[in-house]
Amino acid sequence: MNEQDTEAERRHREKMVKRKAVQDAEVASKTIAQKALLIVHTGPGKGKSTAAFGLIMRAIGHDWHVGIVQFIKGAWATGERRTLDHFPDQVRWHTMGEGFTWETQDRARDVAAAEAAWGKVLELMADPTIRLLVLDELNIALRYDYLPLAEVVETLKTRRSDLHVVVTGRNAKPELIEAADLVTEMVAVKHHFGAGVKAQEGIEF
Amino acid sequence: MNEQDTEAERRHREKMVKRKAVQDAEVASKTIAQKALLIVHTGPGKGKSTAAFGLIMRAIGHDWHVGIVQFIKGAWATGERRTLDHFPDQVRWHTMGEGFTWETQDRARDVAAAEAAWGKVLELMADPTIRLLVLDELNIALRYDYLPLAEVVETLKTRRSDLHVVVTGRNAKPELIEAADLVTEMVAVKHHFGAGVKAQEGIEF
Q1: What is the tally of structural domains in chain B?
Q2: Do B55 and B26 have their domain in common?
Q3: Top-confidence residue, B193 or A159
Q4: Which among B82, B182, B186 has the least Cβ separation from residue A192?
Q5: Per the count of CB atoms within 10 A, which of A4, B56, B63, B169 is most buried?
Q6: Please, which pLDDT band fits residue B107 given cuts at 50, 70 and 90?
Q7: What backbone torsions phi and psi does residue A128 show, to the nearest 5 degrees?
Q8: How close does chain A come to B156, measured CA to CA in Å?
């Protein structure tokens, strides 16, 4: 190692010592040890449902039971279903929607489907074995006023204290964001659809 | 159903017919049927590695073989590992990093770990059975110049044509974004750390 390397090493180490101090202080500032989170994945980019699916698979690795209610049929597909089929004892999955709302073109049917889905949510919330509940595309049902927003938000806020909930979908309502502990917006920086590439099997469905 | 309902129904249907036409036109405009994607998950928010993990689990559902190289040890944890252990024939997983760089405070060791990890990447890229390769936290190794950027980007760009690659980590280099097909930025809208809540087992690790 020559002198220049040594100097670079030293500077790197100094910088990292400072970085670690900041990191350690941040960790130490957290005093609430356990809190079930209300998580929202929103924004126009990819990854909202996929990250929720990742959370489900992580929870399964912790031997948790999970519930999934899909407000829009078709948002998840073969790949997810076949993977989840490996864990039948840990997963309760309900697909309640009737396809994207611009496919059905029937508001009354969409409202009925959303209400049925919400009924399933209440059922799963009451099951004490479930530790994680994913409400996929609930934001779309709220956006089109298929469900009463205030009631939905209040029910999520007053849920039992050991239940993590993940809500996905674009255009999350401000009231839901206000109630949430963790909100991530997925932003599309670049998309292959713009380059004329179709959705890819195995990756997107 | 009263008259007002009928009118609302009609307006909804008209709007959705238009929405569907836009959607259909967009789908029809895609002419490239198959293309393995170079995907980047970046940004300061949560969900970068979790969405990559979700992609892995979806790919597993399609019976694909996947490769995972972690450039930073500790970014993934027990939950993921225990889930992936259910699919030993489909997963090749290498953890090469030595912990976050501000923990090691040793640049030479970090560079050596990054180089060893990149060696594994080349090995997995050469395995024709692998359809999806996740390079977790590669962006951190590139940000600290632990690896030669131009060489890494060129290798990813010239990979075999049936291999999807996902790169995660904050601060993705512009050169990598330029080369990628799909780039999503995860933005933190709200975070429970700000409310003094610790990272939650089962959800965050």
Answers
A1: 2
A2: no
A3: A159
A4: B182
A5: B56
A6: confident
A7: -70, -10
A8: 16
